[in-house]
User: Fold these one by one.
Assistant:
Number 1:
Amino acid sequence: MANKVLAVLEQREGIIKRSSFEAASTAVKLAKDLNTSAKAVVVGDAISNLNEVAKYGIQKVIHLKNSELLNYSSSGYTEAVTNLAVEGNFDILILSNTALGKDLAPRLSVKLDAACVVDCVKLNLSGNDIILTRPAYAGKALIDVKLLSNKKVITIRPNVFKALIAENSTPAEILVKELSSVNLKSKVTSFRKSEGKLDVAEADIIVSGGRGMKGPENFHLIEELAEALGAAVGASRAVVDAGWRTHNEQVGQTGKTVSPTLYVACGISGAIQHLAGMSSSKYIVAVNKDKDAPIFNVADYGITGDLFEIIPALTKEIKKVKQS
Amino acid sequence: MKIVVCVSHVPDTATRIKVGSDGKTIDSAGVTYIINPYDEYAVEEALKTKERLGSGEVVVVTLGSENSKETLRKALAMGADSGVLIRDDNQRDSLGIAKALAEEIKASGSQLVFMGKQSVDYDNSIVGQLTAELLDYNCVTVCVKLDINGDKIIAEREIEGGREIVETSLPAVITCQKGLNEPRYASLKGIMAAKKKTIEEKSAAVYTPKTEVVGMHLPAGKQPGRIVGSDVSAVPELVRLLKEEAKVI
C-alpha cells in the first residue's frame, strides 16, 4: 500500500500531549482521503495514556521504548523514528509543530530524503498532490506549498487542526518495541520550568502589557487580571527590550506567534510586528488611552481610557462574574 | 578554530507585505532589507566564542544575490573576519539553502556553526537542523544559553513552559534565539574596517527542489470591532459581552 501515513506523537513525563492528538487525527483523515491507513509512533519510557490515541481513529500505536529516552534526544529520536519509518514503508509523517516537533521533523526529512514543510495551518489534497498552507512573514502572508517528493514530513500548527473523536473507535493495538541501543550524541539532561505559570505559546487566554503600563512595577495589574482569567502573561517587544519583562513572554514577530481564544492587550498600541503575532486570536480586547491606536483595528472589543483604572476594575468584575 | 555564521538578508520586520505580480512572492518594491534579527545573536555568539578562545576566525556566509552583500557587510562591521556569498539569484527552499550551506561548511572544515533560529521571511526554523543532518553534525535549536568547553557543549534551549538543558559535543550547529546574548553595535571603526574585508563569491551545486511555493495571499483582515466605552464605567458591559456574546469567560 502506498502513501502510508505515520503520526509521530510527543510525550512529556510519560504523557502524550494534547497537540499530538491533533496530529493523530490529521493523519487519520489524510490516510482516509488517500485511501490508505495511518499508524502512530511515540518514543519514550513508560507512557500512561497510549490507549487514548485510539479515540482519534488510530488503530495501531508503536511505542519505541527505552529508559534513556524519557527526555528528548534529537539524535536518539531521529534514529529510532527513521528506522521505524523505513521498516514500515511510511511515506508521510505528521507531527505537531511544537518545540520538539519543529526540532525533529527536518532531521527526519533528511534521513528519509523527504520534503519538509512546517507550521501548516491548512492541508488540501488536489488529486494526489498535497498542498499545504502556512504563514510566512510572521503571519502577514500565507503561502501555499506543493510537495514535490513522494516522501513527506509535515508539522501542523497546534490549536488549528481539530482532534476529532472517531466514530466507532476500537481499542488500538499497542506494539511495544524495546530499543536495545539508542544514539545519545545529543541528549536533554533536565528541564527548567520558567517562572510564569503559563506559557503564552500554549495558553488559551493571554493578557499582554505594553509600554502603556509605564514601568515594570505596574505589571502586577496584568498578572492579577491574568490570574482572574486563568491566562498567561504576555508582553510587547518594547517592554521586553526595555528589560521590564523576559523574552519568553514576548508576543509578535521576533517573539511568539499566538492564536488564543481570548487576547487582552493592555497599553499596547499595536505595532505591525505585534499585530502579526496575535491578530489570528479568536477574540481580541484592547484597553488603550489612544483611540487612534492601531490595536483597535483588530480588536473585537475596546475601551479607550486610563488602563490604571480600567484593568483593576476588569479584574474585579471578572472575579465577580466567575464566582456567580 | 574556524567558526561559520550563516546569515540571511530579509525584509525589515516593519514591512507591510504586498503580494507580487507573480502571486507567489512579495512585492519587494520599497522594501528595506536587513540582516535577519536572529542572525545578530548568531554573529555575536561567534565573536564572543572567538574572543574567549583568544584565537580563531569568524566567517559569515549567506546565500543570495548581490544585495545580500549588505547583510554580510553588517556582520563584518560587527567584527566577523571575512564573508562568503554563495551566489544564487533564484529563491531556494529550506533544503536547497541547507545543501548550499552544508557544502560550504564542509569545504571550510569548520566544526562550529551558528545561525539564527529562523529567518523572519519564511519563518521555517528548519535550516539549522537540515544543515546539521546533511553534515552529520550535532544541532541545538532555539538556544538561549551556551557553554562550550573543549569538545563538550552544554546548552539551554527554549521550549514550551521552560528550558531544556542539552548535552552534546562538537561538531555542531547552534541556532540562536533572542536572549542568548546582547548583540554589539557596529562601531564606526568596525564599519570602516568592514569595507576592506574580503567577500568571496562562490556558486552552489545545482539543486532540484522538494517543495514549491504555488501561491501567496494575505490573511483575511480582522474587522475592527466596537468601542465599548471610554472609561471604567464600560467594564461591566465588556465583561457581559465576553461572557454572553463571545462566550470566552
Number 2:
Amino acid sequence: MTDFTPWSALLGGGLIGLASGILLLLSGRVAGVSGIAGGLLRPEPGTVGWRPAFLLGLVIGVWVFGALGGDLDSIRITAGWPTLVIGGLLVGFGTQLGGGCTSGHGVCGISRFSARSIAATVLFMTSAGVTVYVARHVLGGGA
Amino acid sequence: MNRHTWIALGSGVIFGLGLAISQMIDPEKVLAFLDVAGHWDPSLAFVMIGALLVMGIAWRLQTRSVPVDAHARKLSIPGHGIDRSLVIGALVFGVGWGLVGYCPGPAIASLALFSLEAFVFVAAMLAGMQLFHYRRGTSAS
C-alpha cells in the first residue's frame, strides 16, 4: 500500500513539464524519453551529444533529490528477473512501434492535443491497468 | 559540449528531479496507481496534471518562436493518424509497464539507485528497442 501524495505529485509533474518546456523552447526538441533512448541506438550526425546528456541528466536528477534529503532507500524493485527481462523487452519494443511513451505521448503529445498521443495514452494506460489487474487479482498472490 | 548539449543536460536533471519527487521512480507507487481494483493510489494522475499544465503553456509560447537548434529536425510529430503500429505498440508497451512498474524515463532515472534490477530492466528495454529497429531495417531492405 502507498499513501496518497497529491502535492509532491503535482510538484514533480510540474518539474517534468518545466524540463520538457525548456527542451522545446530552447532547443526545439520534444522530450520523449523512448525516442531519445531509441535514437541513441542509431546515431545520426548532429543528434549525438544531446541524447546521452539528457539521459545522464535523468540519473543526476535522482542523485540531486537524494542529496537534498529525499528518500531513495525505501524504493524497491520487487519484480523477479524473468519479469524484468520480459517487461523491459515489451516496453522497449512497444514504445518504438507506438512512437512514444508516457513522456512523449502522455505529456508532450497530449498537451498539444495530438489525437495520436491521446489515443496511445488511453491504450497504454488501459493495457497496463489490465496487466496489473490480471497479475494481482486473477493470478493472485497480491504481489 | 555545445550549447544544446548543456540545455539537454539541464532539462534531464530537472526531469529526473521531477520523477524522484513525484515518486515515479518507485515501481510500487506506479503499480498502486495502475491497480484500480486494489488499494488505488491516484497520486500519479496529479503528476500528469502538473506536467500537462506547464507543458501546455510551453506549446503556446513555442508557436511564437522558431526552433533554435539547427540540428533539430522539424518539430511536427509523424502525422499518419491512429494506425495499427500506434495501437499495437501502445498496448504492448502497457503490458510491460504493468508487469514491472517502469516506463522508459523512470527506468533510466532508476540507474541512479545502483540496483541490479534496474540495470537488468534497462538492458532488456534497450534490447527491445534494438529489436524493433533491427526488424524494421531488415523488412525495409
